Protein: TfuA-like core domain-containing protein
Amino acid sequence: MTIIAFAGPSLTEEDRREFSGVTWMPPAEAGDLLRLDVNASTRLCLIDGYFDHRPAVRHKEILLLLSEGIRIFGASSIGALRAAEMDGFGLIGVGAIYRAYARGNLVGDDEVALVHGPEDWDWRPLSVPLVDVRATLCRARRRGLIDAEEARALLQAAASIHYIDRTWSLVVQLASLPRQHPPLESSLKQWAVEQKRLDARECLRMAAGEVPALRRPAMVRTVFLDNLALECGVDLDRRCLAGTADGRVTDDPIKVNKRQ
Structure:
């Protein structure tokens, strides 16, 4: 079994050392899954990915791998989003963030967005994602560091800040709480919940364990998938032929409507 993980700022260097048997890939963008050389024994963890200044990983390329029998786990960031959108097609969602999207408690893509450094900096986060703010404020409420009204003010302030600029310092500043909290910023940092990291680690653990059998969806090619494959230099005809040569098509596939 081979585990491939697309991960960036959701994991630290220490996390990567702990999960030493994983093949690490940078945050995913459109076409990255098509370029993979994988087989039915491969397990793929989709954790981090681009979506703003680079095109996001496409649903159709995920569906193609699922139809080939590849087990895909989604968590933390773009993985949680895609899992909530595609869990009916076999994509396995993992973690609290995925569950919140699946229930409809979270709806905005910006909830998981942050700005981060390059690979040379170990993808270090440079801003705070809104999902981590929510989790931290829940913990702060339970510990009595803030009351409900203050938590609402801090969350409203955090939501008003563009993801590139969101820091705990700016969140506390914009919240304009009625009573002064000189140590509030340091307390929030001290008790911060890194929910994206927690979910990413859970995803890796699940990928390494026992999972139920995959009910593979039927793959329906569209012009958009063909164009993406062309841009990536992938021979989709050869790939699809290889995917069916050993009988890896299910007898009872999930039906997928053909759409452009």
Confidence is low (pLDDT under 50) at residues 244-260. The longest helix spans residues 130-142.
